[in-house]
Every structure is written in C-alpha cells, then in structure tokens.
Amino acid sequence: MAELQDIFQNYGKNYREKYKLTLVQHKAMSAIKNCRTAQLGGHKDVCESCGNTKISYNSCRNRHCPKCQTLAKERWIENQKTNLLNIGYFHVVFTIPDTLNLMMYQNQKELYTLLSGYA
Ligand SMILES: [Zn+2]
After folding, report:
1. What is the mean pLDDT of the chain?
2. Rounded to the nearest whole angstrom, what is the distance from the C-alpha of residue 69 to the centroid of ligand 1?
3. What is the number of domains present in the chain?
4. Which domain holds residue 46?
5. Residue 119 Cα, ligand 1 centroid: separation in angstroms?
6. Is residue 53 in a domain?
C-alpha cells in the first residue's frame, strides 16, 4: 500500500516545479518525504537489561506527518474516551480559524450556544 511519503518521494519534485507551495507546505512535504529515512539520521536504542540494540531512523515530528501523528492521534482518542458520557450522543471536534480564538474565548457561552444550534 502506497504511503503519502512514497507519493512525495516519487512525485513531489515534479509537483513543486508545477505548483507554488507556501513555506509551511514546503516544509511539511519535505518533512514527510524524509521522515524515518537516512536523510534525518538515526539513533541506536540499547536495552539496559540484555544489551539488545535496535537502530532506527529519526522521525520528522512534523504535525502534518501521518507517520509521526498516528501515535499521538491514537493517544488523543484514548484520552477522549475517558471523558465520554454514559449516554448516546454525538461528540464533534473541529477547529476554527485562529483569528477567531480571542473572540471565542471572550464570548464562549454565546458562541458555543450558536454552534450547538440551540440559539
Ligand atoms: Zn514524520
């Protein structure tokens, strides 16, 4: 099964030549393309008990990288499960433009009421 990294490695250069990317997009594409490859170097983990060693390539840790964020996403989902109510309901998570953060913070009751549809 092809991964996003495979697509970026095989077609990223052509894509970047054809389309202009923002700096953030370019950094994300580069990070994902190089994640857990020799490009980012590696490290050696050694078991303190038995001395067994494991050599791994370093992760990019980019927030857009599916390899790096899969574990974080699974941890987040598991953590959210502890907050679930014992009744049937929908739990919706979404983001808003960060330009609205201050307004949302200062008007939480009104805006959350609007978002809930019970205004
Ligand atoms: Zn990564």
Report:
1. 91
2. 7
3. 1
4. 4-87
5. 42
6. yes
Q: How far is the CA of 36 from the centre of ligand 1 (A)?
A: 7
Is 57 within a domain? yes
Cα dist from 23 to 5, 17, 52, 68, 73, whole Å: 18, 14, 41, 20, 25
Q: What is the pTM of this model?
A: 0.63
Which of these, 39, 15, 18, lies nearest to 29 by C-alpha position?
Answer: 15
Position 106 scores a pLDDT of 96
Instruction: For residue 113, tell me if it sits in a domain.
Output: no
Q: What spacing in Å lies between the alpha carbon of 26 and ligand 1's midpoint?
A: 14
The verdict on residue 114 lying in a domain is: no
Distance from the CA of 51 to the center of ligand 1, in angstroms? 28
Distance 58 CA to ligand 1 centre (A): 8
